[in-house]
Specification:
Elements (H helix, E strand, L loop, with lengths): L1 H14 L4 H16 L7 H7 L7 H16 L39 E2 L8 H15 L9 E2 L54 E2 L5 E2 L1 H15 L38 E2 L13 H11 L4 E6 L5 E6 H17 L2 E2 L2 E2 L6 E5 L5 H13 L3 E5 L10 H10 L4 E4 L1 H6 L18 E4 L23 E8 L5 E7 H15 L6 E4 L6 H13 L3 E4 L2 H6 L3 H9 L3 E4 L1 H10 L13 E4 L7 H12 L9 E7 L3 E5 L11 E6 H5 L13 E5 L3 E2 L4 E5 L14 E6 L6 E2 L3 H8 L17 E9 L5 E6 L3 E4 L2 E4 H9 L7 E13 L2 E10 L5 H19 L3 E7 L14 H10 L6 E4 L1 H4 L15 H10 L6 E3 L3 H4 L2 H6 L3 H11 L4 E6 L5 E6 H17 L8 E5 L4 H12 L3 E5 L7 H14 L2 E6 L1 H7 L2 H6 L8 E3 L21 E8 L5 E7 H15 L6 E5 L5 H14 L2 E4 ...
């Protein structure tokens, strides 16, 4: 009948509208049916539900779960005891939960007595709450992280990317509409999809081919981020420089405490009439002499057998022997090693309570202070170093241990016990009987003292992982024993079963100290036995008829899992089952479940006695059975939302987020208790407010050893009333427990200060978060329930991190799905976001000595990148709501107002120029040297045998040379071949595809001799044709080359089968091999251009943003460039310079091909490629040829710094001497890399490199040489600017070392004839000194324009003939596209004028506009590289306004996921940006051009086309 009724009821429920609420109703109903005590309810009832639920999977799961629960009689699925869970934290059993949620409580019933136990376990109820919370969520489609598929091949992404011609997608990360900023259009990039792509390739808005896998994941991420989030905080700046992070304003609707102020609660007085012994040692002596046969302590082995029973007589005699030995038999240099009051370490395993007890009392008798610590098993134990610091600070020099333990300790090679990291040197004394000396009859210990002296020191590990020692005085120790005896009603000869660690905390207070005072018999259950047989403690209670048992909720939980087959155990002898971790709110689950199962085996409900304790205050409160006068136990169902604001609100509705707590009993006898505010002045809390519990008693700890400051704060707190009046004349001790005082003066604890995480203004408890995570299906996903939750501070707020061990057989999909659900459950129940969720392999989290997870060590590993997770999910977009306000662009000040403003402020306009050419050189010579072909002919006639070029190979030998006449003749023959064989006309373009060498230079002058326009092109890489050949083909096509000049080997390569796979080889123009195809004859006449403005050559290069552009250089500009460089570097025919640059574009090309011919100096040419096989080639060449001037690129400098770091001694022995160098210039088109140049200078100082020799040059597409240090003039200066101000396009100078400071060094001196001005990027008006703007340049050697197939005039005009909008509007300038500023220094230049320094900040095209601010990629990359030692290189770019960070991992692949959190943290902290995607790749994947500059746009395209073969891609939520 009942069965049919249920079936009908469930059918009725199913027909209701299906939603999360329904789930909850059904689950409640099923649970109520299934779990009522004494009711035998057929499983058929539940089976009957299943057919109705086919279309309701969530409901079906609920019913199936209820069936499981019903069948097992337990809410836990059976499993082996967990080695890891902190008692209360074990799996499903501790899940939060409203034990009264389903049946709404009447309003007036606030905190009810629970003699009638709730029929459902509260873990089940919390599981329901979590399921119901998850049912509300639609399954979010989040992008799953990508892990390496090693079948993908690496491809260097050495292609170019044309500009984005389409608008960017809307910004979903800030909610701002993007301001259209006037971008400089980029040109001449012909986009082609590389061959080999299938038709399924998508194109992005910008036409970039994108692999659908990556783009669909990014789309999923964007969709997730578009979901409505919690409103961000009100954010603001006080001024544009100071980005202030808003302190969250209190929510006007948040609950506030409304009760009256609490009063100090007094415990019952200590019984006066009781004949207490005068001291603990007096009690020991009394029992040892009067009752020597009475059992004191029974030790068990791992099978549960009693291996030894220590009697009181033995304890007394052996303690005396030890005390005598310690005081009289240990000497150092004929002095006693120890004197009274010295500290001694006690190192005993958990399996040997007998020896520990002897050691402890032996020390007390000898007036020494025992410091019990864990046995160090390895040199790298979690927290071991901190224990070493404690021993060092306590001045410990001796450690007591047992023979067996000493043999098991790690040994040094000498056979002695190894010195552990951070530990002081220790002498080890084995205290087994044979090592001790019997004292003479007349020897008596002095110690009968009960004074304020320290009795022992108990170690405590703080939230941050530091270990401190809590000192307990003799008086406190005695008072604690008396209070516990009275509170627990201990009587003489009672038996106590102890499962806890006897070295500290309640295990020590009850099992070693109070037991001796009362001549009790303690049965000590070792941890190893509990792991093998979790029922052992119950069996011992039964066999020894123990009256009291001391356990943690973990032990109750384990025994529940193992009790099924046991029918013969009885717990009827117990009068007190003390739950030592009752202060953990989640212990109630274990208590309820344990009672439910064992009540039928003699366990009485009133026997369960949770207690609360802390290392500082010892026992704070303990529940007493009714026969000892305790009030009935109570429970409180509290709103988690209220608790997060520190307010107690009884939850009377069926809410999901409630916390059920049980009382931990009454205050200890003789103690006073109050609750004070957690932070700031210790004001008394209101009665409905959660605060820190404080105790005043003679039985608390007295200090942190050696730490006076925090001792005063913790042990000498004076609570004050709201009016500031002290609430008591005696100081209180803070317990670190958070709670309140409930009805009947019962103490309730809702969490610990150590587990408190303050996010915004709300407080969350780590244990509560763990409980919710463990309730998420599948419950067995977390390996043995091992979860650590802690907070890390990122961007001025706590961020919650959850780390769990995953089951060994979990798949990637399982892991990701579980993580997604955990995020949703925590968000729903606690209304807080998880910043990082990490899964690690089973058994890899650091363990605390007796199981549990070592939280502070886990946190340390997380922050140091040593956690090695196998899955990570970061949610910075969801959690970080306190970013600075996005910058709103203000209406710009007009250029005229700016000039007036500068005049008023006394600032000069930021304009500077190099020396005047007219003053420096004879204008006749300048006219004579106007055309380079004329100069070469002149040199061939006047100094035919003067050497111009020397080319070195990797071995350092000269492979080819060229004198003036040799070069002239070679050039003539090339010109003849062009005219005869290629039939080119004057003005035709000719592509020169050569390796670096003299042939390239000869071909260049051959083209000029024949009137053709040369275009130098880097040859394709034979091993990488697929990516390098399309660029060659493109330059040949875009430049409209009529012919290609090259070598025989390259010619074969261009026409090979492999080339045909990459490009269409049939469309090459005629290709000439200049080694074989050139005739041995001169041309009739050398072409002379009709005017200096005629085009001399085209300079093609790919910019760092992936734009391929060719610029036109006229003959006038070419000779002006050479003239400026000659004057700046003082180049004459007698000079030798060494060049280690690529000769294909920019200044590298000019130095290789132009300058030697113009100035007549000899150039020693070192191709950078040769350094790959001989790193020291360049420096050896500089030394051998005594070059005063040398040029290199950043990549060459980096190669030398990394490759020769340890070899300077070898080089010195080989005779390398760099003292000849006057100036070593790094050719660059970027901000100077100070760190690299400084480390290079420092490293090679040993080889004689002058400290000030290294400097940088600056050039760009419109003018390849704007600044060059040269040989004269003041040294380059360095300034420090505020990085935050730079984001707002402002320069603010700061002191070195100040926060957010960024060093900038000047990029050499402005060349003769060059003028520079700083212009506003948008108004194009001139700016003042030290203002950030675009660098504009005017000079005779500016390029004349872009060469493009389309001939876009507007572009040409904008870049090469810009004019200021105000002020000097006549001068024609070229826009460099670089941001920088000019600053007048105190130094003087050669003319005696004050020197103007030019500082380059970065390329405008490269900058990232995020949150309305301008970021330079290099700044973000520098921060990221510093984040972890395994990050070899890094590059950032944006895609759909998501910041993507690519890092190269120089380490094991298993370390890859450690980087995700560190990268996200550092970018948030230092740049206030949320990283959208973190990509971990192998070293060498980030493409770099010949100047050593990162090609970020190539990288972006490679990522979107899924060509990077990443190790891991994390999509931050």
């Amino acid at each position: 009948m009942r069965h049919l009724e249920t079936k009908a009821k469930i059918k009725q429920i199913v027909l209701m509208k299906h939603n999360g609420r329904l789930c909850f109703v059904l689950f409640s109903y099923v649970s109520k049916l299934g779990l009522k005590q004494h009711q035998r309810f057929s499983l058929m009832t539940l089976h009957a539900c299943i057919p109705f639920l086919t279309y309701y999977p969530v409901l079906r799961a609920c019913v199936v779960r209820a069936m499981d629960v019903r069948a097992c009689g337990l809410e836990m699925e059976c499993g082996e005891p967990s080695t890891g869970v902190d008692p209360s934290l074990q799996a499903e059993n501790r899940i939060p939960g409203p034990s009264q949620t389903t049946t709404a409580a009447p309003k007036q019933q606030k905190l009810r007595p629970t003699n009638s136990r709730d029929e459902r376990f509260r873990s089940d109820v919390h599981t329901e709450a979590v399921q119901a919370a998850l049912a509300k969520y639609k399954e979010r489609k989040m992008p799953m992280p990508s892990k390496r598929r090693s079948v993908l091949v690496h491809s260097s992404v050495e292609t170019y990317t044309p500009p984005d011609l389409h608008p960017a997608p809307p910004d979903v990360t800030t909610g701002l509409v993007e301001h259209s900023h006037c971008e400089r259009p980029q040109l001449a990039s012909v986009r082609g999809v590389p061959r080999g792509y299938s038709g399924s390739v998508l194109e992005t808005a910008g036409g970039v081919p994108v692999n659908s896998r990556v783009s669909s994941k990014i789309q999923q991420l964007l969709n997730t981020l578009k979901r409505p989030k919690r409103p961000p905080l009100k954010e603001f700046f006080v001024d544009d420089f100071e980005e202030l992070l808003e302190v969250q304003q209190p929510d006007p609707n948040q609950p506030k405490p409304e009760g009256s102020q609490m009063v100090v609660l007094k415990g019952e007085p200590l019984a006066l009439g009781t004949p207490w012994p005068p001291s603990l040692l007096a009690a020991l002596q009394r029992w040892g002499t009067m009752q020597p046969k009475a059992p004191c302590l029974t030790a068990l082995d791992t099978t549960g057998k009693a291996i030894y029973t220590l009697t009181y007589g033995k304890l007394w005699s052996r303690s005396l022997k030890l005390a005598y030995t310690l005081l009289n038999k240990l000497t150092s240099k004929n002095e006693p090693l120890l004197k009274p009051g010295d500290r001694v370490a006690l190192v005993f395993p958990n399996s040997d309570p007998v020896m520990f007890m002897v050691a402890f009392y032996g020390c007390l008798l000898a007036e020494l202070v025992p410091v019990p610590i864990e046995v160090p098993l390895t040199r790298k134990d979690a927290g071991s170093q901190q224990v070493g610091f404690l021993l060092g600070s306590c001045g410990v020099t001796l450690a007591l241990t047992t023979d067996a333990c000493q043999k098991g300790l790690p040994k040094a090679q000498t056979g002695e016990v190894a010195t552990f990291k951070g530990w002081p040197p220790l002498a080890w004394l084995v205290i087994d009987g044979k090592h001790l000396t019997k004292p003479p009859k007349d020897w008596h210990p002095l110690a009968q003292d009960v004074g304020a002296g320290t009795a022992y020191i108990e170690y405590k590990t703080s939230k941050e992982g530091s270990t401190v020692g809590v000192t307990v005085s003799h008086a406190s120790l005695l008072a604690q024993c008396r209070a516990l005896t009275q509170a627990c009603g201990y009587s003489e000869a009672e038996t106590l079963t102890n499962v806890l660690d006897f070295k500290r905390d309640a295990g020590l207070w009850h099992g070693v100290l109070t037991s001796v005072m009362n001549r009790m018999h303690v049965i000590s259950i070792p941890y190893a036995l509990m792991k093998v047989n979790p029922l052992s403690w119950i069996q011992k209670v039964c066999s020894y008829k123990a009256r009291a048992a001391l356990v943690k909720s973990r032990d109750m939980h384990w025994s529940l899992l193992a009790q099924r087959g046991q029918r013969d155990v009885s717990l009827s002898s117990l009068r007190m089952l003390i739950v030592a971790d009752g202060a953990n709110p989640w212990s109630i689950s274990s208590c309820d479940a344990f009672l439910n199962v064992f009540q039928s085996r003699g366990l009485r409900p009133e026997v369960i006695c949770p207690c609360a304790s802390s290392p500082e205050a010892l026992t704070v409160a303990i529940r007493r059975p009714p026969d000892l006068g305790g009030p009935p136990p109570r429970k409180a169902v509290l709103s988690m939302n209220g608790l997060s604001y520190g307010v107690i609100r009884v939850d009377t509705e069926e809410k999901l987020s409630v916390l059920t707590v049980q009382d931990v009993g009454q205050v200890m006898p003789g103690a006073n208790v109050c609750v004070v505010k957690v932070e700031g002045t210790p004001y008394l809390c209101k009665t409905d407010e959660v605060g820190e519990i404080c105790v005043n008693s003679s039985a608390t700890g007295t200090a942190y050893y050696g730490l006076l400051g925090i001792t005063k704060n913790v042990f000498e707190t004076v609570p004050v009333t709201a009016g500031g009046v002290p609430a008591s004349d005696r100081p209180f001790t803070r317990t670190g427990l958070l709670g309140f005082i409930g009805p009947d003066n019962l103490v309730f604890v809702v969490g610990k200060l150590d587990g408190l995480m303050v996010v915004g203004v709300r407080r969350h408890n780590a244990d509560d978060i763990v409980a919710t995570a463990l309730a998420v299906e599948p419950m067995k996903f977390v390996y043995r329930g091992r979860i650590a939750v802690f907070s890390v501070t990122v961007l001025h707020d706590d961020r919650i991190v959850l780390v769990a061990e995953q089951r060994p057989d979990a798949s990637e999909e399982d892991s990701f799905q579980w993580m997604s659900r955990v995020l949703q459950a925590i968000d729903s129940i606690h209304q807080v976001g998880v910043y990082c969720l990490a899964l690690v392999p089973a058994n890899t989290l650091p363990k605390a000595p007796l199981g549990g997870i070592h939280i502070s060590e886990t946190k340390q590993r997380f922050l140091e990148g040593m956690l090695h997770p196998c899955n990570v999910l970061m949610c910075p977009h969801t959690c970080v709501t306190n970013l600075p306000k996005p910058r709103q662009k203000q209406p710009e000040v007009g250029p005229a107002s700016m000039i007036v403003g500068n005049l008023v402020a006394g600032k000069r306009i930021a304009q500077a120029s190099g020396r005047e050419l007219a003053h420096l050189e004879d204008s006749d010579q300048a006219r004579k040297f106007l055309f380079l072909p004329d100069v070469l002919q002149w040199r061939a006639h006047t100094t035919p045998d003067h050497p111009l070029f020397l080319l070195l190979n990797a071995k350092g030998t000269v492979t080819s040379t060229a004198t003036c006449v040799q070069l002239h003749k070679k050039a003539e023959r090339v010109a003849a071949a062009l005219m005869e064989k290629a039939r080119v006309n004057a003005g035709d373009h000719v592509a020169l595809v050569y390796p670096p060498g003299v042939d390239l230079i000869a071909a260049f002058y051959g083209c000029l001799y024949s009137g053709c326009v040369p275009v130098t092109v880097r040859p394709p890489h034979p091993q990488n044709l697929a990516t390098t050949l399309p660029t060659v083909k493109m330059i040949v096509e875009v430049s409209k080359s009529a012919c290609v000049l090259t070598t025989q080997a390259i010619m074969r390569l261009l026409k090979s089968k492999e080339a045909a796979a990459a490009v269409d080889v049939r469309t090459w123009p005629p290709i000439l091999d200049t080694a074989d195809d050139i005739p041995k004859k001169k041309i009739a006449s050398i072409f002379r251009p009709p005017s200096p403005d005629v085009l001399a050559y085209l300079d093609f290069s790919v910019s760092t943003t992936g734009i391929l552009a060719g610029v036109k250089m006229s003959h006038a500009a070419t000779s002006a460039l050479c003239r400026s460089i000659k004057l700046q570097c003082e180049l004459y025919p007698s000079r030798q310079i060494a060049i280690c640059l690529d000769p294909y574009c920019g200044l590298g090309f000019a130095l290789w091909c132009l300058c030697s011919v113009y100035s007549g100096h000899q150039s020693v040419l070192v191709p950078p490629l040769e350094l790959e096989s001989n790193v020291s080639l360049w420096l050896s060449a500089v030394s051998q040829y005594k070059a005063r001037v040398t040029f290199c690129s950043y990549s060459v400098m980096e190669m030398c710094t990394k490759g020769l770091g340890a070899q300077t001694g070898v080089l010195r022995m080989k005779g390398v001497n760099l003292s000849c160098v006057r100036t070593c210039m790094v050719v660059a088109e970027e901000r100077p890399r100070i760190a690299l140049t400084q480390s290079f200078s420092k490293l090679f100082k040993d080889l004689g490199l002058p400290a000030r020799a290294v400097s940088t040059t600056f050039g760009c597409r419109v003018n390849v040489a704007i600044c060059l240090q040269g040989t004269a003039g003041p040294d380059p200066t360095t300034v420090y600017v505020d990085m935050r101000a730079l984001r707002h396009d402002r320069v603010r100078l700061v002191e070195r070392g100040s926060p957010h400071s960024l060093p900038l060094t000047e990029s050499g001196k402005i060349l003769p004839g060059v003028k520079v001005i700083i212009a506003h990027t948008e108004t194009k008006g001139p700016l003042g000194d030290s203002h950030l703007g675009e660098i504009w340049v005017s000079s005779p050697h500016n390029a004349t324009g872009y060469y493009t197939v389309y001939g876009e005039e507007s572009l040409h005009a904008d870049h090469f003939s810009a004019r200021l909008s105000f002020g000097d509007t006549q001068t024609v300038w070229a826009r460099t596209g670089y941001l920088g500023f000019l600053r007048r220094t105190e130094l003087t230049d050669a003319s005696g004028e004050r020197h103007d320094a030019l500082y380059v900040v970065g390329s405008l095209d490269e900058t990232l506009e995020l949150r309305g601010m301008r970021y330079h990629p290099i700044d973000i990359e520098t921060s990221v590289i510093r984040a972890h030692r395994s990050i070899a290189e890094c590059a950032v770019f944006t895609w759909t306004n998501l910041l993507v960070v690519v890092v190269e991992l120089d380490g094991l692949e298993q370390d890859a996921l450690d980087l995700v959190a560190l990268v996200t943290n550092v970018v948030l902290e230092e740049h206030h940006l949320v990283v959208g995607v973190v990509v971990i790749v192998d070293p060498g994947v980030i493409p770099i051009n010949s100047r050593g500059e990162k090609q970020r746009m190539h990288l972006r395209d490679g990522f979107l086309a899924d060509q990077l073969d990443p190790i891991y891609v994390a999509y931050n939520m």
